[in-house]
């Protein structure tokens, strides 16, 4: 991408820049002697400042959530002064835009960056239109740069390229009469995603932000394991490379170009010891309160990189992890769905062109809904909602109370049970596949079913838009033959191998039960003789018909054994089965109640 969009954004902030530079000059002139040593000038008159503060605003994992996320998915936890934790409603681009615009005031050097998954697994308002509304919103928010995440590959590299460069959808055309999709006016960075045939990155590997002699380089990568969590079709023809090696390679290239200030945007993350956005993960010592893949990545990335903006785990943290030279370096993440943004101060030395690492400060802030909405975002949402309304508002079923999916932290989720039951019900008939059991991956449950009305439909009514938000991938369903031994292996893969550090507990249909013993480690966590189907012990030698979405059917999420199924039958989409189940099992007078969670017995 040319530098033009960045220059345009800089022009929009020119008045603030002039005022800010004047202020900096005045501050330098009035600074005490100690500070003056840091701000030596040449000749007579006011000395030039030695350093300027660059503001880095960042967020991650928006997932097309233009409207405030519903239910528990729309809350962030906040530690109060007395130590208690309070759930605070947050998010929605109307508020995110306002928060970012307010934060930029008085900061002449302000950059806004994102760490991937801006799109994909999106609510219907964005997903129905292949996330064009989200890209439009990000353009208006003045996003300067973003890494790609795994979900940017959900529809393949060609669609990702279209999101960057623009043009109407190849099969569905233009969604608004007389309007052609312009694409992202910020660079999407994909340094470690390359084409198998050419070895070249799918998109630019890095970009350099420039203003008044200040230069900051950004390198963007997604997690190396992207092929494990995206459908095979989405990553067809692509290779994904090691995050550390890739960032170090391009940091060296930027350094050779004279770019000494570098930020890595990494779509991989960690797990803080607390899920509160304002938890101090540098307690009791630097980085003590965070674990997960990002810690080792941070420890391996060259000291040439001054800060890491991360994502993927949907957690909020701002803490320091030592670089290979043993110096503390800031590592941040801003929750998900636009509920939090990070404000980082990078002190830029005008002489060395590098960041003064010891001066880097960072904090996460809630995107509060108790502020004025950004009118341009309100208008954008209203415009796209009008286009989506005929589909989005159609009733699909009725519920008697919230049925939590994404908002549940338990291994067995109420909404996971509903989805698995829906898949079994739709695929059990002999002519539909003859399924005896259904498995659902927990990461594919993108929201909760919320009892309170989201619009004019009334409380307890599940609309198509709400069902789509829960199941936005429209994965086709598969029914395959697997032996009892293979099913046991699948259960063990939930808690071993690539999933041992962060278990992925499959949601199972009614009649399938087992015990999960978390006091043990690895595959031993599955109590073998507890696994039963309809009350009968699982027979290792017997063949079972198993339903699952095509993502799991391809071995996704660290379940390679599920990709070994035989006699595959392709059925309807997961969303179609979900909606059909709601219609068949609920009415206004007999709504669907949250199911019991008694299929997986957990020993802690």
Automatic annotation (TrEMBL):
<feature type="domain" description="Calcineurin-like phosphoesterase">
    <location>
        <begin position="59"/>
        <end position="315"/>
    </location>
</feature>
<comment type="similarity">
    <text>Belongs to the 5'-nucleotidase family.</text>
</comment>
<dbReference type="InterPro" id="IPR036907">
    <property type="entry name" value="5'-Nucleotdase_C_sf"/>
</dbReference>
<dbReference type="Pfam" id="PF02872">
    <property type="entry name" value="5_nucleotid_C"/>
</dbReference>
<keyword id="KW-0378">Hydrolase</keyword>
<dbReference type="GO" id="GO:0009166">
    <property type="term" value="P:nucleotide catabolic process"/>
</dbReference>
<feature type="domain" description="5'-Nucleotidase C-terminal">
    <location>
        <begin position="402"/>
        <end position="563"/>
    </location>
</feature>
<keyword id="KW-0732">Signal</keyword>
<dbReference type="InterPro" id="IPR008334">
    <property type="entry name" value="5'-Nucleotdase_C"/>
</dbReference>
<feature type="signal peptide">
    <location>
        <begin position="1"/>
        <end position="28"/>
    </location>
</feature>
<dbReference type="GO" id="GO:0000166">
    <property type="term" value="F:nucleotide binding"/>
</dbReference>
<dbReference type="InterPro" id="IPR029052">
    <property type="entry name" value="Metallo-depent_PP-like"/>
</dbReference>
<keyword id="KW-0547">Nucleotide-binding</keyword>
<dbReference type="InterPro" id="IPR006179">
    <property type="entry name" value="5_nucleotidase/apyrase"/>
</dbReference>
<protein>
    <submittedName>
        <fullName>Bifunctional metallophosphatase/5'-nucleotidase</fullName>
    </submittedName>
</protein>
<dbReference type="Pfam" id="PF00149">
    <property type="entry name" value="Metallophos"/>
</dbReference>
<dbReference type="GO" id="GO:0008253">
    <property type="term" value="F:5'-nucleotidase activity"/>
</dbReference>
<dbReference type="InterPro" id="IPR004843">
    <property type="entry name" value="Calcineurin-like_PHP"/>
</dbReference>
<dbReference type="InterPro" id="IPR006311">
    <property type="entry name" value="TAT_signal"/>
</dbReference>
<dbReference type="GO" id="GO:0008768">
    <property type="term" value="F:UDP-sugar diphosphatase activity"/>
</dbReference>
<dbReference type="GO" id="GO:0030288">
    <property type="term" value="C:outer membrane-bounded periplasmic space"/>
</dbReference>
């Amino acid at each position: 991408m040319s530098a033009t969009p960045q220059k345009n954004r800089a022009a929009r902030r020119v008045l603030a820049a002039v005022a800010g530079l004047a202020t900096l000059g005045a501050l330098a002139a009035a600074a005490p002697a100690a500070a003056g040593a840091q701000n030596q000038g040449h000749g007579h008159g006011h000395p030039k400042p030695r350093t300027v503060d660059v503001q880095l605003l960042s967020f991650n994992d928006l997932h097309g959530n233009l409207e405030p996320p519903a239910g528990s998915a729309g809350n962030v936890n906040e530690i109060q002064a007395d130590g208690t934790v309070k759930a605070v409603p947050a998010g929605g681009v109307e508020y995110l835009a306002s928060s970012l615009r307010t934060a930029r005031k008085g900061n002449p050097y302000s950059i806004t960056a994102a760490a991937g998954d801006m799109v994909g697994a999106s609510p219907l308002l964005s997903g129905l239109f292949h996330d064009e509304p989200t890209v439009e919103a990000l353009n208006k928010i003045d996003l300067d740069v973003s890494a790609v995440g795994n979900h940017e590959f959900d529809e393949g590299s060609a669609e990702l390229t279209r999101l960057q460069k623009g043009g109407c959808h190849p099969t569905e055309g233009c969604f608004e009469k007389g309007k052609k999709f312009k694409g992202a006016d910020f660079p999407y960075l994909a340094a470690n995603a390359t084409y198998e045939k050419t070895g070249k990155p799918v998109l630019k590997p890095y970009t350099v932000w420039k203003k008044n002699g200040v230069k900051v380089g950004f390198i963007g990568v997604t997690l190396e394991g992207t092929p494990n969590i995206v459908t095979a079709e989405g990553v067809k023809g692509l290779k994904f490379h090691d995050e550390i090696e890739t960032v170090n390679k391009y940091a060296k290239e930027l350094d050779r170009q004279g770019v000494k200030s570098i930020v890595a945007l990494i779509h991989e993350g960690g797990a803080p010891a607390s899920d509160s956005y304002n938890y101090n993960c540098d307690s009791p010592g630097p980085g003590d309160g965070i674990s997960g893949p990002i810690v080792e990545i941070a420890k391996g990335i060259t000291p040439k990189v001054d800060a890491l903006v991360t994502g993927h785990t949907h957690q909020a943290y701002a803490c320091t992890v030592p670089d290979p030279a043993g110096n503390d370096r800031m590592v941040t993440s801003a929750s998900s769905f636009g509920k939090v943004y990070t404000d980082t101060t990078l002190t830029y030395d005008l002489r060395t062109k590098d960041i003064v690492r010891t001066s880097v400060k960072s904090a996460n802030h809630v995107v509060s809904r108790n502020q004025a909405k950004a009118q341009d975002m309100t208008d954008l949402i209203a415009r796209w909602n009008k286009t989506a309304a005929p589909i989005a508002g159609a009733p699909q079923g009725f519920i008697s109370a919230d049925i939590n999916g994404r908002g549940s932290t338990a291994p067995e989720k109420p909404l996971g049970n509903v989805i698995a039951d829906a898949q079994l019900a739709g695929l059990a008939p002999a002519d539909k596949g003859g399924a005896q059991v259904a498995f659902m991956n927990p990461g594919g449950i993108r929201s909760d079913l919320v009892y309170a009305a989201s619009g004019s439909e009334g409380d307890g009514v599940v609309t198509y838009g709400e069902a789509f938000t829960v199941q936005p991938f429209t994965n086709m369903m598969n029914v395959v033959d697997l032996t009892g031994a293979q099913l046991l292996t699948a259960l063990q893969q939930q808690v071993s191998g690539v999933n041992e550090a962060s278990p992925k507990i499959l949601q199972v249909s009614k009649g399938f039960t087992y015990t999960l013993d978390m006091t043990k480690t690895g595959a031993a966590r599955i109590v073998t003789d507890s696994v039963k189907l309809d009350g009968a012990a699982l027979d290792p030698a017997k063949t079972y018909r198993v339903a699952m979405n095509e993502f799991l059917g391809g071995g996704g999420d660290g379940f390679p054994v599920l990709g070994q199924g035989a006699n595959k039958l392709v059925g309807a989409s997961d969303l179609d089965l979900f909606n059909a189940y709601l219609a068949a099992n609920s009415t206004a007078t007999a709504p669907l109640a949250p199911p019991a969670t008694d299929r997986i017995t957990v020993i802690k």
